[in-house]
Request: fold
Amino acid sequence: MKITSIRLGRISVPLRTPFKTALRSVNSVEDVIVEIGTDGGNVGYGEAPPTGVITGDTTLAIIGAIQDHIGKTILGRDVEDFEPLLQAVQGAIVGNTSAKAAVDMALWDLYGQLYNIPVCKLLGGGRKQLVTDITISVNAPETMAADAIKALKRGYDCLKMKVGVDPTLDVLRLKAVREAVGQGITIRIDANQAWTPKQAVRILNQMQEQGLDIELVEQPVKAHDLEGLKYVTERSFVPVLADESVFSPENAMTILKMGAADLINIKLMKCGGIYNALKIASAAEVYGVECMIGCMLEAKISVNAAVHLACAKNIITRVDLDGPVLCSEDPILGGAVFDEKIITVSDAPGLGISGIEDGKVNWFWDTSALA
Reply:
């Protein structure tokens, strides 16, 4: 199965409501789609969101990385020569993890098709279903409480609350949400690097002292501040999840060795795809540190790839794969079924994506441009 073509397109999917964090506010998913074709007619799909404030990857950067570097590296090669192919993707260009992730997942898709097996089973997994949380954007306390109630009515029992915009309001935000939803609902929070280490400890401990029962806090301090992350981990009553601090297996190993976090968040867009995500999961297994699987604002193709990984690895105990349910429509055919909080993986070979609805992708480049 030789790679004979690569095609790039753009997709735009409106969100149900604006998505607001301490870092940004957006109204739609605007992703790059990758389609890799083979001499046997098989097609593998990948996707990359431009999340410049986190990964540094813009739309044009993703496109350029694939057009000028990654695409040229893999074109004409055999999918069966799989690990060298994945290594070539990672070595084709420095950084550009989202572009690498999109191509990586398309290759896994093709490899599963080559052996007629779903990627999750290819990785040894047996889970068929996952349960995801849903993200509540940062807003005024009363707005977040109302949004939390709406999420409960949709069937969710685990809420991820965005905080960090005006930290003086964060305790009030969580108090309003807890009072609205009552006990028995899991609440986790994501500060998106908004706090200083001392500020984080004060806010988190105040939340717990008020009985708000926070399951975990995601990335309370700046990504580069590993000493600050460790400071919070050692002093906070709330377990700390490292997210933006983990862009590679090497980052994960440093955090694990330091004891700088209680948990590790794996995101394909940060680490460059399934190939490196497996290394992070293995490192976490060695240290006995549980992982969350997360996503950016992404449509179903890339989140579906994360579903396959999560179904295969028991060290992944928490799921934050709500990208598709935050969207107002799903133009992607096949793949995992996202029925609100319940995600059911596909039994189809590879990643199970069969195509995209007509007219939903603006295809703008293919490998004929390399000729």
